[in-house]
């Protein structure tokens, strides 16, 4: 269990930073929304860039917190099976899920990098025409990178857990 605890502690600082980034982005999104609504209703002014930034901060907030959610075991899985099976099989299924997650995130990371790169080359702009499209879409490869890192850490932890159960029996 000592190795698993060290692995858990190794990402605590990153977890906290990503949590702060996610919360900051979501709060900023709410503040910008309130600003936009106030300007539109009371001063009859509407800024498209503010509305775009609101959406982009939500996207960045969500994608930045993918990794810590994986660590907290809050990703999509079937809880019913987890409740029925024994501890050894539970760890094996968790390992399989972690491997599938890692492969999925790696695939999505590679493709999102290609997409962002193509948007950058085309110099495509967002719907308001004020921002290059690669800026908001950069959130996707960043989120997928964190997903890869955290799912790989889960693979290591699940492997250690399986080894510990095998030693006990």
Descriptive account of the structure:
This protein has 169 residues and is mainly α. It has one domain (2-168). Helix content is 83%, strand content 0%. It is built from 8 helices and no strands. The chain has helices at 2-10, 12-43, 48-64, 66-71, 79-84, 87-122, 134-137, 139-168. Helix 6 packs antiparallel against helix 8 (139-168). The longest helix is centred in the middle third of the chain and has 36 residues, at 87-122. It is elongated and about 70 Å long. The mean pLDDT is 88.
Count, helices = 8
Q: Give the count of structural domains.
A: 1
- Structural class determined from secondary elements: mainly alpha
Q: Compute the gyration radius: what is it?
A: 20 Å
Instruction: Detail the poorly predicted runs.
Output: none
Short description:
The protein has 169 residues and is mainly α. It has eight helices and no strands.
Which helices and strands appear, and what pairs or packs with what?
Layout: H1 2-10, H2 12-43, H3 48-64, H4 66-71, H5 79-84, H6 87-122, H7 134-137, H8 139-168
Keywords, please?
169 residues; mainly alpha; 0% strand; elongated
């Amino acid at each position: 269990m000592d190795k698993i605890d060290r692995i858990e502690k190794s990402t605590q600082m990153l977890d906290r930073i990503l949590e702060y980034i996610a919360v900051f982005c979501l709060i900023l999104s709410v503040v910008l929304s309130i600003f936009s609504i106030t300007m539109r209703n009371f001063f009859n002014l509407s800024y498209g860039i503010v509305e775009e930034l609101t959406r982009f901060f939500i996207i960045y907030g969500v994608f930045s917190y993918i990794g810590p959610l994986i660590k907290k075991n809050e990703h999509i899985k079937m809880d019913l099976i987890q409740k029925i099976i024994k501890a050894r099989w539970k760890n094996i299924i968790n390992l399989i899920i972690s491997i599938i997650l890692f492969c999925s995130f790696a695939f999505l990371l590679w493709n999102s990098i290609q997409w962002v790169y193509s948007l950058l080359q085309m110099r495509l702009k967002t719907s308001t025409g004020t921002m290059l499209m690669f800026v908001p879409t950069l959130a996707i490869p960043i989120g997928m990178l964190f997903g890869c890192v955290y799912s790989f850490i889960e693979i290591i932890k699940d492997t250690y857990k399986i080894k510990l159960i095998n030693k006990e029996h």
